[in-house]
Design goal:
The complex is a heterodimer of chains A (279) and B (315).
Chain A: H1 6-30, H2 35-40, H3 42-52, E1 67-70, H4 76-86, H5 126-140, E2 146-151, H6 152-156, H7 158-169, E3 175-181, E4 184-185, E5 188-189, H8 190-193, H9 199-205, E6 209-214, H10 218-229, E7 236-241, H11 264-276
Parallel strand pairs in A: 1-2, 2-3, 3-7, 6-7
Antiparallel strand pairs in A: 4-5
Helix pairs in contact in A: 1-3, 1-4, 1-11, 3-4, 3-10, 5-7
Chain B: H1 7-21, E1 25-29, H2 33-36, H3 39-44, E2 49-51, H4 56-68, E3 72-78, H5 79-85, H6 87-96, E4 102-106, H7 124-129, E5 135-137, H8 142-154, E6 159-162, E7 184-187, E8 192-196, H9 200-213, E9 218-222, E10 225-227, H10 231-241, E11 244-251, H11 256-267, E12 272-277, H12 288-294, H13 299-314
Helix pairs in contact in B: 1-8, 4-6, 9-13, 10-11
The chains are: A alpha/beta (279), B alpha/beta (315).
Chain lengths: 279, 315
């Protein structure tokens, strides 16, 4: 396993801060979007897009690139920020999110937006799509790794567990599922709405190697992503315990901020908190 | 090709054969390969065959992953399961995402006569027509089903094709070729037009024979591509015959008849009579032909619909 330098960790945490600031501004300006679930995966996206993924923004269709599937499409703003800041399209495009004629749709659209691997929005698809990509590369190559970022709600859906059965059958070690387990969904706490526990046991029973981390601890995120590449006979799930709305005190652990827009005062307070926020 | 084999067998054999020439074709199946007869492909190309069990929704998504990686997945199960259980996957990940997935619905219409209404596919065409970007195909016989396999594989985009479980009478000779979006005039006539899809094309031909006994010359159009519809061919038929009948082994609501009526309303309004299932699930039957006859899909039903259309034309 690589040792990740303090400089890298610091840099990636700043990237995560930038993603949150972008998301906040995008949601505020547009008057729509999903801040809570975008904030909970900011460190994960920063680690992937600014360090871990084998990608080239000048060649979004490079055949050997790693594939990243944002299964939780409601975190579109966070993905758009990561893609823009990584150079897939101009950062100025973020201000056009949801405008008529803009390439940035409410939820990710693979046809319209450079760097978006797959359109998403309704939950649960990513795991099965990742299995298909793993099967394809065995037949045709080239080899690459596939990542799917899933939410609590996505893991509740039946198709996710159907896909888990298929991943186990084909032992798709090419696939790493990252679960942004913030324990809050649209209507309330996941442990109240439809409990997933015992979640680790479930993934293990379904044939996955499980790595459990704090999804806001950058060193743990990076180590887990590296570790997953060393698992050669099983699909891996990284269960990342996260906080919905992470980084803004009044948004944290609140279902209200799943899909809410801050007022002018809330926006100013949130920006201030994010700017001084230290993980 | 003999009409003695069921349409599913003609499809299954054609798929296995096409697998020999196109290494990018892969086949997914949800535990019914012995029924849809994708087992021929499985036997000949085992490394390109994926049986994922009774997980229709996941199967479509696995197919999407294969398509996104440059392969051409043929995703198979019973038409009712495919279009209903995996409907959202098809909507979001195939149609909206414009992935190159070929959806093949076996056991179409009432062809699974012995298993009954749970297994019948009577609204699959309606559902698939309502998917933006989806091509919808219902081949008339074994030759057309076989010819369609390379054609839909080599078309770049989502396709839904329904295949009968049953023996379907021959309409075409081996010389038949198909082009997506192009209907075929299989019988000339200028009094009335009979438009059929799938297993109803052969019945339209028999109805035309019966009408000829009454000195009514019926034109017959075989429309394998229900979407995009060959509007030019149908408009021309409306202009030249002035009355039309549609015939399909599907609900009248949302199928071929609806497509024809929508096209004519915009281009050349003319009387149209519909032969199809009239807002019903039908019932289990002793064999496909008897069942179709009992539920409004008989040759006689087509003849009577033609007479009604002709009466409306002369008013």
């Amino acid at each position: 396993m690589h040792h990740h330098s303090e400089t890298l960790i610091y840099d990636l945490l700043e990237r995560a801060r930038q993603i949150r600031l972008d998301v906040l501004e995008m949601v505020y300006r547009r008057g729509a979007g999903h801040p809570g679930g975008s904030f909970s995966c900011a460190e994960i996206l920063a680690a992937l897009y600014f360090h871990h993924l084998k990608i080239d923004p000048t060649r979004p269709d490079w055949p050997e690139r790693d594939r990243f599937l944002l299964c939780k499409g409601h975190a579109a703003a966070a993905l758009y920020s990561a893609l823009a800041r990584r150079g897939f399209f101009p950062v100025e495009d973020l201000a056009q999110w949801g405008h008529l004629g803009a390439h940035l749709q409410g939820h990710p659209d693979r046809i319209k937006t450079p760097g978006v691997e797959m359109s998403s929005g309704f939950l649960g698809h990513g795991l099965s799509i990742a299995v298909g990509m793993a099967l394809a590369q065995r037949l045709k190559g080239p080899r690459y790794h596939i990542y799917a970022l899933m939410s609590d709600g996505g893991v509740q859906s039946g198709v996710a567990w159907e896909g888990a059965l298929a991943a186990a059958k084909y032992r798709t070690s090419e696939v790493t599922i990252i679960m942004d387990y913030n324990d809050v969904q649209l209507d309330g706490a996941t442990h109240d709405i439809l409990p997933l526990e015992p979640l680790i046991d479930k993934w293990r029973a379904f044939g996955f190697a499980v790595i459990e981390i704090n999804g806001h601890n950058m060193r743990q995120v990076l180590d887990a992503l590296d570790m997953a590449l060393e698992i050669h006979s099983l699909p891996t799930v990284i269960v990342a315990h996260t906080t919905k709305g992470k980084g803004v005190s009044f948004m944290e652990n609140s279902a209200k901020w799943h899909g809410a827009v801050p007022t002018e005062q809330e926006y100013a307070r949130a920006v201030a908190e994010l700017k001084r926020y230290v993980v | 090709m003999s009409s003695q084999i069921p349409q599913r067998q003609a499809y299954g054999m054609a798929l296995a054969d096409y697998g020999d020439v196109n290494p990018d074709v892969v086949v997914l199946e949800a535990d019914v390969s012995s029924s849809t007869l994708t087992k021929y492909f499985a036997d000949r190309h085992p490394t390109r065959f994926f049986n994922v069990g009774v997980t229709e929704a996941s199967m479509v998504d696995v197919g999407v992953g294969l398509a996104l990686s440059g392969l051409i997945p043929f995703v198979n199960t019973f038409a009712a399961l495919l279009t209903l259980r995996a409907c959202e996957q098809i909507r979001t990940c195939v149609a909206y995402a414009h992935t190159n997935v070929k959806l093949i619905g076996g056991y179409s219409g009432l062809s699974d006569y012995k298993d009954g209404p749970t297994h019948f596919a009577v609204n699959d065409v309606a559902i698939m027509r309502a998917m933006p970007d989806m091509v919808v195909v219902a081949p008339a016989d074994n030759v057309e089903a076989a010819r369609m396999v390379p054609v839909i594989a080599e078309y770049d985009g989502p396709v839904y094709m329904r295949i009968s479980r049953a023996v379907v009478p021959d309409v075409f000779t081996e010389a038949h070729t198909v082009q997506l979006g192009k209907g075929v005039t299989v019988r000339q006539g200028n009094d009335v037009t009979l438009i059929g899809s799938g297993s109803m094309v052969a019945r339209c031909m028999k109805a035309a024979d019966a009408l000829a006994q009454e000195h009514i010359q019926a034109r017959v159009l075989a429309v394998h591509t229900i979407k995009p519809l060959d509007v030019d061919l149908i408009r021309q038929a409306a202009e030249e015959t002035g009355a039309l009948v549609t015939a399909e082994d599907h609900l009248i609501i949302g199928g071929l008849g609806s497509a024809v009526a929508e096209a004519l309303a915009g281009h050349y309004p003319a009387p149209v009579e519909f032969v199809g299932l009239n807002d019903t699930f039908a019932e289990t039957g002793p064999d496909p032909d008897t069942l179709m006859d009992a539920w409004g899909l008989s040759v006689k039903d087509i003849v009577e619909a033609a007479r009604r259309a002709l009466r409306r034309k002369s008013r």
